[in-house]
Each structure stands twice: as structure tokens, then as C-alpha cells.
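In response to reviewer comment 3 from the previous cycle, which asked for concrete evidence that the modeling workflow produces usable outputs, we include below a single protein chain processed end to end. The sequence was submitted unchanged, and the resulting C-alpha cells are shown without manual editing.
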Amino acid sequence: MSQRKFSEQELVRRKKYEDLVAKKVDPFLEDKFDRNTTIINLNNDFSKFSKEELETNTKSFKIAGRIRAFRLAGSKAAFVSIQDQDSKIQIYVRQDVIGEEAFELFKDLDLGDIIGVEGTMMKTKTGELTLRVSSYVLLTKALRPLPDKFHGLTDIEEKYRRRYVDLIMNEETMSTFKSRTKIIRTIQNTLDEKGYFEVETPILNPLRGGAAAAPFSTHYNALDSEFYLRIATELHLKRLIVGGFEGVYEIGRLFRNEGISTRHNPEFTTIELYVAYENIDFLYLIAEELIRKACMAVNNTCKIEYGGNKLDLNKPFKKWHMVDAIKEITGVDFWKEMSHAEALKIAKKHKVHVEKHHLSVGHIINLFFEEFVESTIIEPTFITGHPVEISPLSKRNKQDPRFTDRFELFIVGREYANAFSELNNPIDQYDRFLDQIKEAAAGNDEATDMDIDFVEALEYGMPPTAGIGLGIDRLVMLLTGRDSIKDVLLFPQLKNKD
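The workflow returned the following C-alpha cells.
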């Protein structure tokens, strides 16, 4: 291993650490600090008081935090700003209060050091709320300096690689991840109140299934078999509906061996919900409810702006059949019965690239939607009526069995949810798995495997069921106004620095 090289500032800090240890003031020795309040509580409780009112206050408070600003007031006093998880506050330290030796050590502290302090509340002449310190303890010495407070982490990649520094320096980053937790909790609470059960299903699976995506694979030594990281939770959750649960959901990581972009990360979080005795009409309502409640939880309004577009999530979401959308945008009418060859001619005329494994008219309909329609959608819109060929787990539409009772929710050109009345006919399901095998043979590496155990589960009988998957990461992006999925993942996947 090569010798580590330190900057001049890092060398200075390490020398300070060595000096502290020599004075028997080890800055890593403390293993606990008993706070009796938090900074945000002090700000909330005492901001309303005047300077004069606080002069009679004698109650002592113990708080802890990281030093973010340090200003000496002459040679015998200092004003310091410290920061904890939720807020910042100024502290006032005087030599004649804490003692000459302690103050000399205090003056030598650095930005980024973590301290615990005790004192009483006051306000300065300018009216700034301040903790008058009676004692302090150095809890942790920061051996690396923080970035310049005015510029922060200027390298965007470094923000993601050193998320811990980004969280220290950027209040907006911390706020985003607090909002993410609040969004997830709101969804959980909403579904729990409806009587649905949160469950956990396997991450390692012997088969690819539940969605059209390329999987990650791994070798399972104990079984001497290839396994896949799950690309969806769907098939296990529907097995639970077969088993007698009438409402189950799972919030968890999925893994898809695809590219990295502002919209995609190879591991991401979704919620999938399955409810017995319901159909697609129920799913329209639950999708709107979950999104509105999550938005209210973090924004206190359903009127937001995203990508320069003003959105009112309180309005009923538009429903738009995929074929109608294509006809409106391009003039091409896929309601007409046509052969695959005829559809290929139309695709060629409109310069739509068709792969060899796109074996049906339904595939070409979907290609037209992705090429011409998807990016035009701004307002929340349920795209309905997906062709059977691209919906191997969806129930067919009663009026037109070429299509399914399915929708995808799009907002500002991005997909947020996928939902459908679940296919519960085991014979039809078996045939559709066979079609997927044909697609795989034709070169579609996203086709699903034959899951005979799932077919056999359906043969025991699954009631009519509605199922929806909602992308948590993209929802957090929408509701917090973030442009990249990397901004809502604490530790996104990144390319190697080299």
C-alpha cells in the first residue's frame, strides 16, 4: 500500500491532535455526551424572548454539535456557531467563565470539530439567540478540513462520493433526505390504516421475473446455482394473495443491470401493493391518494413546480389510452386491425427502429408511444390500454382483448407508477410465459423466465386482484424538486474515478 499524503492543513490538525494527547486531552476518548435538549428546541423555545427577559433565565442546557463558524472577540472571548442534525446556534465562550487553561484549548479548536457544551440562554446586542457557555468538552477532532463554507463542494461528483460532507455543508441536501423518510412513512401509514400488511420477500431469486429488465446475477455457492437479484417483488407478493392475504405491500430495493443516468440507478426503491377483490379503477384512486398525501407531508401543499412546470396534484389525473395518445400526436391509428408486416411498414415510414425480438403489433405500438408521446406529457397522466404482448402479467381488457387493464403514470415526461388488474388465469399466464421465452430466443435479454411455481400457485386460485408499483426515488425527486436521481439517493452508484 502506498504511503498516504496529507495536505498542509491536515498535517496541522494531526499535530494538534498529538499535542492534545500529550496533554492527556484525547479528543476521541469520550464515548457519550448527555444532551438535555437539541438546538432546534432552543431556537423554537427562546427566539420569542427579548434580551432583557433572558437575562433572568438561569436554566442550564446541554447540547452538542459540529463547529461551523469561529470568531474570536478579543483575546478572552469567542463566538462560535455549532450545528446538529436539525439546526445551528451561536455559543458564547469567555475565558473568565470556563478558565484560562480550558479557554486556551478552546481557541485552538478547528472548524468541523465536534463539541458538547453546557450553558444558559441569552441574546446579544444585535438580538441573536446565543448559548452562554459554562463548560465544554471536545468530543471529536476533525482531522480533515471542511470545504470553504461559501463554495461548498463545487465538484458535483464529489457531492455524491462524499455524501457525508455534502450533508454537513448543504442544508438542502439534509432536508431532501428528511423529506424522503417522511414520504416513505406517509405511504406506510396510509396503507397500514387501510389494513394492508407490510411484508418482506426474497432479494435473491432463482428466476428472472416480475418485470422486463436485465438482471444482476450471482453464484450461490451453497446451492451451486446461479441466482438473480430481484428486478421486482411482484410474483412473491401475488403468491401471498393466493395464500389468503387480502392486502400486502413491500417497500424495498430492486436491482436492474442497466445504465446510470439522471433518471436511473441500478439499485432503486419501489413500493408494490396488491389488494384482493379490486381492479384497475381502485388503483387510479390509490395512486392519486398516495402521491397527494406524500406531497402534503413534505410541502404542505399539492401545488408544486417541477422542471419549470407548475403542477396541481389536487386535480384529477388525466386518463389517456395509449393508442389514442399515439393517434393524437402522430396521426397513426393503431385501433385498426393490422398484421405485424403492416405495422412494420408504418414504423419504417416514421423511422421507428424495431428490434428482431419485437414480434408483434403490440410491441410496435409501445415503440411509437415511447418515441413520440412519452416526452410530451406534462400534467399527471395515466396512460392506459397497454398491448398484451408487453404486459405478460396483466388481465386482458374485456372489450378489446388486444389490450390490458393496465396503466403507467407519467408526470413531466417520466414514469412514476405501473399498475394493472392482475392476470389470475393460470392457463393464460403459462402461455404468456411461453411468449416471453420466444422473445428471449429472439434476442430480448429483458424477457422474463418461465416461473412454473407461480403458475402452479395460480392454479390453487388467486382472487381478482389489483397491483401497483410506485417508484419511490422518482417520487422524492418530484416532491423535493430535485433534477437527478443521485440527489435523492444517499449513496448512488458512480463510475470509478479512474
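The chain has a mean pLDDT of 94. We consider this sufficient to address the reviewer's concern, and the full set will be provided in the supplementary archive.
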